[in-house]
Specification:
Blueprint lengths: L1 E2 L2 E5 L12 E2 L5 E3 L5 E7 L5 E5 L4 E2 L2 E2 L3 E5 L4 E5 L11 E5 L5 E9 L1
Length: about 110
């Protein structure tokens, strides 16, 4: 698994090109920082839709929480918040993909 690092998005200047900030999704999955203001962006440059799955290791009243999925259409870009719900044993989110051909990912954090 590759460890994704975040790009801070200034509330004053923003970021002009989120697609350019993406790196190739790792075949074995990625990990990412989590918390308030963190987001995962998935860029699908492939001709088929692709799904990113974020593990939710916690439980509610003893019941497992279903993993979160983000399906991104061919040629489209998707975004999902990386909340504390996704905190794994390492303190990071664990993300896997149904395929990684032409799939890019980036983590953004809203900053000051």
């Amino acid at each position: 698994m590759a460890a994704l690092t975040e790009t801070t998005v200034s509330t004053v200047g923003g970021i002009a090109d989120i697609v350019a900030a993406a790196t190739p999704a790792a075949g074995g999955g990625d990990t990412a920082p989590i918390g308030p203001g963190y987001f995962l962006v998935v860029v699908n440059g492939d001709a088929s839709p692709h799904t990113a799955t974020i593990a939710t290791p916690g439980k509610v009243k003893g019941h497992a929480i279903a993993d979160a999925t983000l399906t991104v259409a061919a040629g489209d870009t998707g975004i999902i918040p990386l909340t504390n719900l996704f905190r794994g044993a390492t303190g990071r989110a664990s993300i896997t993909y149904d395929a990684v051909t032409d799939v890019g990912v980036a983590v953004f954090k809203l900053g000051a």
